[in-house]
Amino acid sequence: MRCHKAEHHISLKLDNELKPNQDLKLQKHLQRCASCKKMYQDYQRIQTGLQNIPNPEFPPQLHHLVMTALPGRNRKAELHKMRLSLATAALSIVLSITAGTYVGYQGYSSTQSYTQTLTEEVSSDGLFGENSLMAVSYDE
Ligand SMILES: [Zn+2]
Fold first, then answer.
1. pTM strictly above 0.70
2. How many domains does the chain have?
3. pLDDT digits (tens, 9 = 90+) for 1-21
C-alpha cells in the first residue's frame, strides 16, 4: 500500500467506514511507515479532542435577542406571503384533482364505447364468421 492510499484509508478508519481486510492492510503499512503512523495518531488526537469539546451554554434569551436584532423584518408582509403560497398550493391541488378526474372520465368513456362496439360486432357475428368456432362457443 502506498502512502496516498494509506491516507485515504486512515480517513475511512476514523469515520468507521474501513472494511476489515482494508484495515489489516493499513495496519501493515502503519507498522513500516513512520510518517503515515504519525499522521494517523495526529488525526486520532484531533478527532478525540473535537469529541471532547463540551457544548457551549447559551443564555435562554439569546434567541429573542437575535430575532429582534434582525433588520427589516415585516411580519405583515411575511404573513401575506404565507397566505399567498397557501392559496397557490390549494389551487394547484384543486387543478390536479380536476384534471385527473377529467382524464379518468375521458379514459373510462372511451373504454366503454370501445367495449360497446366490440360487443355489437360480436353479437352480429361481425367479428367472427357465422361458421366460426368462436361464435359457437359464445352461443352456448
Ligand atoms: Zn505511508
1. no
2. 2
3. 899 999 999 999 999 999 999
